[in-house]
Specification:
globular; two-stranded parallel ribbon; 323 residues; six-stranded parallel sheet; alpha/beta; single chain
């Protein structure tokens, strides 16, 4: 009958969701407006490569970003108006999404980033980029802007496994990423990492290797993106030739780990979130009130194969241990 002290977020998630984080940080729901700063990428213009990452679209993964022919102010206005037609929103994140958004002369970057951050409805600036495109002048600019409003840098890592990185044509070694995270954190800039799950030929152990690596770094967020194959990409061409394995919903559900969904259905007992609920549980306990006995029995029948008190005896027998 012990109380269950929730390790889950108040919105029921088993992790700290971006939605909940933003509500706590800014006091209300916040939406991203995706922008196009007219960039390119060193993995496309010949500096590193010409084909880009194997999974990347012709629009530099910014297919739903704003129109680069418009000013940043105009893109923001269009994006905000489109969102406000669906729901009342007061605060926005200006998200530079398409291509590599620190791969340009610093004067141009200062102009477009400042234009975005000065919008009174913008509460944070988010910049998608590569870890190998952060020269000192750009870092200095990001540090200055971060003192005006929060600046997030979203780094495309995808994997730490070198063979996979070469296959997807990422174009930089993982230690470049590690150093970039360190430099950004020295400036107090929030770092969000993009990871793709189920990249071709990656095993579960390889995916966990990436997560283990990130757990040792000072990052503030992670985007876990399931692999999807876009028409017209080099990845699509490889798939047409090899038909490498792509997990379906059932396999993904099984491989994501041991989990109950929803978890609260398997936690019979009062879900304690504040002191008033704790006091109520104490009062019920003192009165001998057990509202969850029948639910506990149902969970017990689902989780425990045996309920005869002979589990240790079966284990000894299974292990072949002589009495």
């Amino acid at each position: 009958m012990a109380p269950v002290f929730s390790q889950f977020q108040p919105d029921g998630e088993r992790y700290r969701s971006l939605n909940l984080y933003l509500k706590k940080l800014f006091g209300e729901k916040v939406y991203k407006v995706t922008l196009n700063g007219g960039m390119t990428c060193p993995n496309r213009d010949g500096h590193i490569g010409t084909g880009g990452c194997i999974f990347c679209s012709a629009m530099g993964s910014g297919d739903f970003a704003g129109n680069a022919s418009l000013s940043i102010t105009e893109q923001l206005r269009e994006g905000k108006d489109a969102i406000r037609k669906k729901r009342p929103v007061r605060k926005f994140i200006a998200y530079f999404q398409a291509f590599t958004n620190t791969y340009a002369p610093v004067d141009h970057l200062e102009k477009i980033f400042t234009e975005a951050i000065n919008d009174p409805d913008v509460c944070a600036l988010s910049i998608a980029t590569r870890p190998d495109c952060q020269p000192p002048a750009v870092l200095e600019l990001l540090g200055r802007l971060n003192r005006i409003k929060p600046v997030w840098v979203e780094l495309g890592l995808q994997t730490v496994n070198s063979e996979t990185a070469r296959f997807i044509r990422r174009g930089y070694p993982t230690d470049v990423f590690d150093h970039a995270v360190h430099r950004l954190r020295m400036l107090g800039i929030t770092v969000i990492v993009h990871v793709i799950l189920f990249l071709p030929y990656e095993t579960k152990e390889m995916m966990f290797h990436t997560i283990d690596h990130l757990n040792k770094l000072d990052i503030q967020g992670i985007k876990l993106q399931l692999l999807h194959i876009l028409k017209g990409t080099d990845l699509a061409a490889v798939y047409e030739k090899t038909h490498f394995h792509v997990p379906d919903m059932e396999e993904y559900s099984k491989r994501r780990g041991f989990a109950f969904d929803p978890p609260t259905d398997y936690m019979p007992g009062d879900l304690i979130k504040d002191k008033d609920q704790f006091y109520q549980w104490l009062d019920d306990f003192n009165k001998g009130i057990d509202k969850y006995e029948s639910i506990r029995n149902k969970v017990k029948n689902k989780v425990h194969l045996y309920s005869d008190g002979k589990s240790c005896e079966r284990l000894v027998e299974y292990c072949g241990i002589n009495k």
